[in-house]
UniProtKB/TrEMBL annotation:
GO cellular component terms, semicolon-separated: membrane
Matching PANTHER family: CALCIUM-INDEPENDENT PHOSPHOLIPASE A2-GAMMA
Name of the protein described by the UniProt record: Intracellular membrane-bound Ca2+-independent phospholipase A2
Residues spanned by motif GXSXG: 89-93
Signal peptide positions (record): none
Native species: Colletotrichum tabaci
Source taxonomy: Eukaryota, Fungi, Dikarya, Ascomycota, Pezizomycotina
Gene3D superfamilies: Cytosolic phospholipase A2 catalytic domain
Length: 377
């Protein structure tokens, strides 16, 4: 191993600790400004949660990738893993993030798996789901979800020694501790993820464990529920993560340094701001009816849009409004329940998303110019 590639490490010898800490400081990614100036600005993809409406996210990504091909005169249609340097998702968005970023699935494969997922995990009539919700605290068991993910990932851990190897992209999924309510990131990168050795299946279950739909999951003694209860839109979480010690890029100021930040939602349901559903304070505990589940969906959707407005403001305030792009079907999906997966619902999601995309052509074209695949790809 030569000096250029040797990694610094701490040895507790007299007088050695201070000098080695000094070496670490001056050779850390944050301190090496010359390296920061020379490397390409990272392109970031964030995916909201939204149950079966996550199909809309996949359709949006497909159209964006088509525009990347057209706007950049490519002779192929790229996949998101070729256009983004970091992908994070919550709940359904977390599943999509793992599929396209960690497991290297194409969007076509992802959509097929998503439809299979819907058929396997959202089965049973509404009366059966209500009974299960009251008796067990969730409408569905997680066995079908685990089986589908396991069929793609086997026993693999989420962490990779080189998160960018084999065409993969550093990936994180958001979950929430049921005990403390604190958000938690399951990562495919970093020292912490390596020590946890969390499986792909467990990470997907943790980010998808919505109390009203799936039971919580316990990993290393900590009980996790769906990240949607904390950050269904993970954009703000990602901006913090990009500046953290665990980040694969460790930016000093994420808003100022990212090359493009794309946030994709799973539809904005309409609702009456004066209704009881909007005013109710919902927590992951004490849910005993489908009505309570609906109230939670309203609150999650509201928080999603609020997070978008906050992140949008941060980019505008930094004079970088053109870097931030948000795509989220603005109307038409409010009639689709998060766990409604019959063929009519899927067709409706596809049709409404298609209509939305037609209205977003200019924005898609502008975004596509910013996420052109790297020359090395």
């Amino acid at each position: 191993m030569n000096e250029a590639t040797r990694r610094p490490f701490l040895v507790f010898t007299p007088g050695g600790l201070v000098s080695q800490l000094t070496y670490l400081f001056h050779h850390s990614p944050k301190a090496d400004t010359a390296d920061m100036a020379s490397r390409p600005q990272p392109r970031i993809l964030c995916l909201d949660g939204g149950g079966i409406r996550g199909l809309a996210e996949i359709r949006i990504l497909k159209e964006l990738m088509l525009q990347v091909r057209l706007q950049n005169s490519l002779d192929f249609t790229p996949e998101p893993a070729q256009c983004f340097d970091y992908i994070c998702g919550t709940s359904t968005g977390g599943l999509v993030a793992v599929l396209i970023g960690r497991l290297g699935k194409t969007l076509d494969e992802c959509e097929a798996l998503f439809r299979d997922l819907g058929a396997k995990i959202f089965s049973g009539g509404s009366s059966w789901r209500t009974a299960r919700l009251v008796l067990k605290g969730s409408q569905h068991n997680s066995e079908g979800l685990a089986d589908v993910i396991r069929s793609q990932a086997g026993q693999e851990t989420l962490h990779e020694a080189d998160a960018s190897a084999g065409g993969h992209v550093p990936v994180a999924v958001v979950s929430v501790s049921k005990t403390t309510g604190d958000e938690y990131l399951f990562r495919s990168y970093g020292v912490r993820a390596a020590s946890e050795a969390c499986s792909v299946v467990d990470a997907c279950l943790a980010t998808s464990a919505a109390t009203t739909f799936f039971p919580s999951i316990t990993i290393d003694g900590v009980e996790y529920v769906d990240g949607a209860f904390g950050k269904n839109n993970p954009s703000g979480v990602v901006l913090r993560e990009l500046e953290s010690v665990e980040s694969p890029m460790r930016l000093a100021n994420a808003v100022a340094e990212v090359g493009c930040f794309v946030s994709v939602g799973a539809g904005r349901p309409t609702f009456d701001r004066e209704s009881d559903s909007f005013k109710s304070k919902i927590t992951p505990k004490g849910i005993t009816s489908i009505t309570d589940a609906a109230k939670i969906c309203v609150k999650i959707a509201t928080n999603c849009h609020r997070e978008h407005l906050d992140v949008e403001y941060r980019f505008k305030n930094a004079g970088r409004a053109e870097v931030y792009h948000r795509f989220d079907v603005d109307r038409g999906l409010e009639s689709v329940e998060l766990n409604e997966a019959d063929e009519n619902a899927l067709k409706h999601i596809a049709a409404v998303t298609k209509a939305y995309l037609k209205s977003q052509q200019s924005s898609l074209e502008q975004c596509a110019l910013m996420v052109n695949p790297r020359p090395s790809m």
